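Researcher: Structure prediction, please.
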Amino acid sequence: MSAPATSRSTPSTTTPPAEPSAAQPGGGTAPNPPPDPAPATRPRLDWRIRFGALSLIWGFSFLLIKVGTEGYAPFQVTLGRLLSGTAVLAVAMVVRRERLPRGARTWGHLAVAAFLLNALPFSLFAYAELSIPSTLAGICNATSPLWGMALSLVALSEDRPTRRRVAGLGLGFLGVLTVLGAWQGFSGLDIRGTAMALLASLSYPIGWIYVRRTLAGSGSSTLSLTGGQLLLGTVQIALVTPVFTSAPNSFPPLPTLAVVALGALGTGFAVLVQYGLVAEVGPTTAQMVTYFIPVIATTAGIVVLGEQLSWNTPVGALVVLAGAALTQSRGHSTGSGSKAQP
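Model: Predicted structure follows.
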């Protein structure tokens, strides 16, 4: 749902979220930050319109990844995505007169966050879509809240699980098994590609937990931290790409446009929209975009790319979303309350 950016996620990205965050698709997930001071004037567009636009942008990201990999190697898709996204945030920082964060300690934590929330999941989704449909990648992305809940059970999060949320975890993973066709022995499923997509989704909550524990109270704004994080993610991928790929011989128009749109819209502009929504309607409402992403990704894959869909994929996806919704609910465990799990 990415992510900062670049997300929850699809999916930032760097400021500790106080509430659940929306997973940025395709690895873009950005944790929902505590909102920066509210602007003096109300946005011109109603928040519902911006919410719908954000859902469409992140939902179509998996299609754009698939199209991008038709002309470029996965690392090249990720590099182009991060370059475009960083450029958008750089312009936003100039317009708002923001500066990059200061301090070696902050930059060190941002480097880890950039790897967990941007470089790693973006690359994994790109590699995964070489062998799995964009519809399946979008559904795998929706498992991020489930992974977050699972991590809380092994004490990697300060949030205490409740019965309702544990039930959501079980229901969600039952949905995953349904999507994958477990009763058929996973027949016809590309295990490697699916595992990469699920691992990408797992990297988001790990990154969010790390961010919450290391960058709280850094003194920098959300935009500043996100811009620094994307910059570091770009540098990381720029160092790796020449090692595993050769320079492209050509720049095919459609894949090139897909990669630029993926970064500029899905990793840069969408993050700005998400932060505006968090500031206006709160993180709980803003994170609901997570549940629209797999629906849009599946529709786009079928209608635009002509991908095939068996009955168990939409049924399992609905079960995954129901389980994810339960893991994000505010319940009460016996004798104590619980805090929303990011």
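Model: The chain has twelve helices and two strands.
Researcher: Thanks, that helps.
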